[in-house]
Amino acid sequence: MTYGWAILVIIAVIAALYAMGVFKIGGTAVPCSPCFSYFAFVDYSSTASTLVIRNGPRTINITDFGNGTTGNFGPYTPGDTITITGVSPGSITISYIDVDSGLSHTDSATLH
């Protein structure tokens, strides 16, 4: 009976590791690593120099897109899709202001 429970636990651990992709071999490279902490990464095309991200849980105004475009853009509500052009591979930092609190924040990612 004890061996049966031990085998069941081992099978559950292997299944969990498989579900997390530990055993996945090959595939494509991760397009951004580390990715943004506030914005959700959607897509990036180095040939078109275009980055697509999704706004996080708060309404914001972007002040710097990280590609040399500065100003006051928005407001972007939660879940809005934001397309940024003129982005080259490497580190990108986006600056934004939380509309509710008025505080400035920055978020960065490394694009490959």
Task: Tell me what you see in this structure.
The model has no long low-confidence stretch (mean pLDDT 87). This protein has one helix at residues 2-19; strands spanning 40-45, 50-54, 60-64, 70-76, 81-85, 90-98, 104-111. With 112 residues, it is α+β, with helices and mostly antiparallel strands. The termini are far apart. The chain has a 4-stranded antiparallel sheet, with no helix packed on it. Strands 1-2-5 form a 3-stranded antiparallel sheet, with no helix packed on it. The longest helix is centred in the first third of the chain and has 18 residues, at 2-19. The protein contains 1 helix and 7 strands; from the N terminus they run αβββββββ. 13% of the residues are buried. It has a single domain (30-111), classed as Immunoglobulin-like.
Largest sheet properties: 4 strands, antiparallel
In the CATH scheme, the class would be Mainly Beta
Query: How many angstroms does the end-to-end distance come to?
Result: 51 Å
Report the order of strands and helices.
HEEEEEEE
Count of separate DSSP helical elements: 1
Alpha-beta content class: alpha+beta
Strands in their spatial order, largest beta sheet = 4-3-6-7
State the oligomer.
Answer: single chain
Helix content: 10-25%
The unreliable regions are none
Mean pLDDT: 87
Strand percent estimate: 35-45%
Any idea of the CATH topology? Immunoglobulin-like
Q: How many domain regions?
A: 1
The count of β-strands is 7
Shape: elongated
From the alpha carbons, calculate the radius of gyration and give it in angstroms. 20 Å
Annotated CATH architecture:
Sandwich
